[in-house]
């Protein structure tokens, strides 16, 4: 199965109508010709935290969302993409709960990384830990085993609580490889076509390294997963937030990668009315990427754009975003901040809001995204030109909820009446159906306050022109009758 070069939707299972059955109806009623590339359903599994990203199992669907039958039904008409948090599983999973009860006598003990698998005597060494790229103050949690009262230290890369809710899996273990295989077999059985490997950069634990994207071991694991997926006709999308050179290595290894640089580059272009950095980037980036502007987290900044942006200029851009209602996710460890202290990990906002609810600027952003080589993904809030949801942030205390509004059917229908949404849907149809996007891409010469992009395949040709003084995109293309036609987007 090849990934379709058409537009995909990203949504939570309950964000467009409340559950998976309703999501399927929404897709069939309004978007059959819109999301021809597929649907990325953010984790629909039973989970103990992080809005789905601490799954108990991949063999079940959270009952509040529906069942595997609902996923399978969506898969009848749309290629379904789901996440596999390949680095960890929930502390509440039956596997870890059994370990918590029986300790080393548990049949699942091999799934987890007890510290004697890292340090021979099981005692952590601070010199080794100081070399690691930490996501919490210590890379392990301490648990008390119910039957013996003994303490066990287990590796936990992620998690805001102590002990953590997200327990790392030992990918060297045959039991873990069998578990991952079982998950993939279940995905295949239920019409899943693409699997995103979430947090895959952290799966290798090796003393003397950062324990992040450890080479060459990371490739050995990836090759094993790629082979397994290929045997089941499933595509793999590794998700790695890191320095752009690591993304390039994955690309050279033949993997699909995420373009985490494009959202910032487009935002910078539209706010500062200069396309110099964007054009330079478009000329040099790998093409085998999934592109996005918005997602359930935020617009990536550090570490994805390290060495690509001037932090003084970045601060000014961030200040504009804050004035427009955004909030920030920050880098916590001093050693991973920029030399001048710049510490912005992600800018959290709706993309429509951060462009000041300017319809032309927003459609320009989407037009650039769709003309950039790769598989375009549109987040559900962005699809409906949703605005910052400050109420959700206040209710939950979670800054990311600013861009996670749950839409009722009535709100969806109302949003579809907005002029900006109608323009976006028309643009998506053009991107899905015009054959030149399967041809050759070029960045044409232009002034610094404009952009000129083109695609050509045989006699089909289309060019996008945007003057950033007006932000009104114009597409020139050869129509079915062979005539040169202008489309004011």
From TrEMBL:
Its EC number is 2.4.1.7. The keyword Transferase applies. Residues 6-431 form the Glycosyl hydrolase family 13 catalytic domain. Keywords: Glycosyltransferase, Transferase. Coiled coil: none annotated. The keyword NAD does not apply. Pfam families: Alpha-amylase (PF00128). SMART domains: Aamy. One of its GO terms (molecular function) is sucrose phosphorylase activity. SUPFAM superfamilies: (Trans)glycosidases. Belongs to the glycosyl hydrolase 13 family. Sucrose phosphorylase subfamily. This is Sucrose phosphorylase. It comes from Paenibacillus brasilensis.
